[in-house]
Amino acid sequence: MKRLLHDLRSIQFTGVLLVAFLSSSACSPPVIEKPDSILSQEIQRQLVVGQVSGLYYPKSVSRFYSKQNFQSPWIKPQNEKGQTWQAMLVLDCVLQFGLAHSDYHPKELLYDKLHDILDIPGKVSIKEQARFDILLTDAMLNIINNLHFGKLNPEFSADKIDKGDINGFHAEETLMIALNPKKNADFLSIIASVQPKSKEYVDLQYHMRLLTGLHQGDCYEIPESDIRLMAINMERLRWAAIDDSTYIQVNIPAYNLQFHQPNATTEFKVIVGKPAAHTPTLNSAISYFTTGPDWTVPKKIFIRELLPKALKDITYLANNHLSIYTENGKIVTPTGATLLEIRRVPEKYFARQSSGCDNALGAVVFRFPNIYDIYLHDTPEQQLFKREDRAFSHGCIRVENAEKLAALLLKSDNAEFKVNALHEAMMAYQNKTFTLKKQVPIKVTYLTCLVIAGELITYKDIYGLDNSLEMALYNTDHQLSLK
User: Fold this and answer.
1) Which of 106, 293, 297, 332 could cross-link 324 (Cys pair, CB 3.0–4.6 Å)?
2) Which residues share a beta bridge with 282?
């Protein structure tokens, strides 16, 4: 067999990726026959005794081979279009997915060695063949998980994924389907189909494919920094797990909120956390919102900002509709003496601001469960939305035209008849809760670039997070300036 022509195969692969990504067919795991061979026995032996070190997903690898009765999926007669060569081609083309070659056993999964295994019987020992087979399986499971969850998912670590059944996804089952596809599906398309389906991801991945697969090596000059910037934001979109037709997405660096519905997307300006008080990325859901809310001041804000202002001007509390309470909920009359006592042990007190036009939450607050205790809300400081850079908050997200967003949520929930009541409650700062029959997912993302109308648009890395993610994604110990 002639040596595989990498460049030609890579060009062929790039033509498959987008089609494969956008359309996948449902398949079922095949029925596996019971083999009895020296190679399958050696594969089983190495896995049972734990002889194969350096696996990314050892439990998943064992589950895969157990379901295959330890039969080798790769080392069998085939032409250069066979699935083993296709798997090697996938690993060759990981740059098109914004991933790094070094994560897929490149020092051992060598084309020369595979040619020797398949073309020259007896040249490579059964022990080495078994190890090659296991490492190729692990590499494919790794890329499947990396494409689906991301390599550095803050919620789902590799160990957690390896235990199996994260959101019903099993990389080993996907690999089994790819190896035994039904009609109108093939190995490459099934692997590519596990990626996110959001338009933002599709557009970035398509642009990445053009730059790394078609344009690179041509007459185009492609900055490496652009490639890596796209890669880290594709990684972030894998974490976001956007798979709903109706959802809210906040992009922190773009200072915007988009309410996506099946037939429309409405955009709003937002204010996010300042660099010293990041707005976190998260996945949650809004099930209700409240008009005329009162506000329990977060402990840090109470100690660092509110209390010093009250000590300087005792009228500050009354002028801002603020009251101080003991930790048991008993209201404290603010005097010079009591404020000095509070300053001595501030952790035993808290402050609450009543509803009204000066309330920090404005006329409506949208709440969603999260460990950071942040929320989305209106604000009386509407003039701040005129600024281009809007990182001013303590971590919560302030939204412009909050009433419009609340009304859209009601209409989306088939509760348009409540819009008038919403308006009246907001105008009167009346405390009233509006519960949605169907909760709306909210995704808070940190995307410093997007492809819009075919053009790469970049946003300021306001929290300075890009370089550290780039180094972790590419396994480097130096910084590449992403400009």
Assistant:
1) 332
2) 444
